[in-house]
Specification:
By secondary structure, this protein is of the alpha+beta class. It has nine helices and 17 strands. The longest helix is centred in the middle third of the chain and has 17 residues.
């Protein structure tokens, strides 16, 4: 651990900051799997799908007497001639991942070491994108409090809508509004069925056309990258599709983020089949599948973009019984 950063202050902290190297890959992913708030997006297995020249990785590990206490998936971004240490831009969220046993005092020392290290590397700011509270195995806001106390401020705040599957009645349809259930029945009457599949190519065509027609944009991932992710993480990247006879008319790509949460990363349908209500049935069936896997939450994803509310998404998700949580980005400038 000769590469560890040890600033002069820190005698009581005894926490070493170590830049990520490939030799730590297995240790890192094993740690994330046992952590309090680690997700798929924090793992090296996920982050490695990005081409090596896309981001300048600046990830960090935090050790105390050679015991790993925390990891921070991060990248070095150059913005207007300044250097920024930021939660990895190739992931939906990041931030510090900590052990369940970490004390508040240790966490405060760790944040102090992060700041000292960042100053020593001449970063002009640090940005952390925090997972919503539903991704924590043990709910705690100590990290947010201590970050705020250290000078971090909320730089961006979005809303994500989710289903709390733990509170759902055993009769699954009772958890949805009457209107949502009516549309589910309509889909079934028109012959719509849902099943898991691996036809990423066909789903991608639907997704690509939908995003281009509605928003003049493209998916975050290329088709090749989705195939790569499925190969790397076959049990955690799952595609469910709605069919009329043998024709795919809609799909949901789920990321099983951790033992708590499945995130609907992409939801898309063929516009000409909207009257078949395939997305209503898809959401119902995939949420039910998640409940059967003993996941606690089904995350629809954000319903806002840079603070602007997408009322169509909000109305649809609330009709399904969704609640809202913050997805925050915190920033500290030196």
């Amino acid at each position: 651990m000769s590469a560890a950063f040890q600033p002069p202050r820190a005698a009581e902290a005894l926490i070493d900051v170590v830049p990520y190297e490939e030799k730590y890959r297995q240790l890192w992913d094993d740690f994330v799997a046992q952590s309090n708030q680690g997700t798929l997006f924090h793992t090296r297995a996920f982050l490695a799908y990005h081409p090596p020249d896309r981001f300048t990785d600046a990830s960090l590990l935090f050790f105390k007497k050679e015991k790993l206490l925390a990891v921070f998936p991060a990248a070095n971004l150059r913005v207007e001639a300044t250097e920024l240490l930021r939660s990895h831009p190739g992931a939906s969220f990041g931030g510090l991942v900590t052990t369940l046993e970490m004390t508040m005092r240790e966490l405060e020392h760790l944040i102090g070491q992060l700041l000292a290290y960042s100053r020593s590397q001449q970063y002009s700011a640090i940005e952390l994108t925090l997972p919503p509270h539903i991704y924590f195995s043990h709910a705690s806001q100590e990290l947010e409090f201590l970050l705020y106390r250290a000078g971090f401020r909320y730089h961006q705040r979005e809303l994500t809508h989710f289903l709390d599957l733990r509170s759902f009645n055993q009769n699954f349809s009772e958890n949805f509004s009457a209107e949502f259930n009516r549309k589910i029945r309509r889909a079934r009457q028109l012959g719509v069925s849902v099943r898991e599949c691996d036809d990423f190519t066909l789903f991608y065509r639907i997704l690509e056309k939908n995003l281009q027609d509605k928003h003049k944009t493209s998916p975050v991932h290329t088709l090749k990258e989705l195939f790569d992710l499925k190969q790397r993480l076959p049990e955690r990247v799952r595609l469910f599709a709605a069919y009329v006879q043998d024709k795919m008319i809609a799909g949901i790509l789920l990321f099983i983020c951790n033992a708590q949460v499945a995130l609907a990363f992409y939801i898309s349908q063929l516009a000409e089949y909207q009257q078949y209500r395939p997305v209503n049935l898809l959401c119902y069936e995939t949420a039910q599948w998640c409940a059967e896997q003993e996941l606690a939450y089904f995350d629809f994803g954000t319903s806002t973009l840079r603070g602007e509310i997408n009322w169509g998404l909000v109305d649809f998700r609330q009709a399904a019984g969704a609640q809202a949580a913050f997805r925050d980005r915190m920033r500290l400038e030196f």
